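Q: Got a minute? One more chain.
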Amino acid sequence: MITMSLLEAELRRDEAVRYVRYLDTATPPNWTTGVGHNLTVSPLPTGWTYPLNDSQVNQLLAHDLAVTFAALDLHLAWWRHLDDVRARVVANMAFNMGVTDLAKFQHALAAMQSGDYVTAAAQMKASAWYGEVGARAVRLCQAMETGVMPNEPLVLA
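A: Always. Here it is, folded:
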């Protein structure tokens, strides 16, 4: 079972929270808002204006997580059988790059599925993603290998 409060806190740290739209430097660049919400893929609901409020940011995040989980369930159904920390790693990566790009990590995913987390982490480190994402990738690789999320964000009840 994935601890949603921890995943949301991790994504808020890793993606940042923005109440206005900004141009993400991904390739290709796209307009983004909230917690990494891609406006090209999913525009704001009718009538919403900037700056967004906390409730709107939370709604976008909940929607984006539901879409991410549905895609993971469809394409990598085994991910739900991982322990909490490793499931959060997979969800974080899928949120960041999308399930289609995550699926390209064939060797890492096969290692995760078989429980070989050292190999999974090594495969993650050997990817272009690792060099592009920086501290986030370092944390996620360490969490995949050890089952402990380093620098876990504080979650207030």
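A: Helices lie at 4-15, 54-75, 84-97, 99-102, 106-114, 117-125, 128-133, 135-146.
Q: Perfect, thanks.
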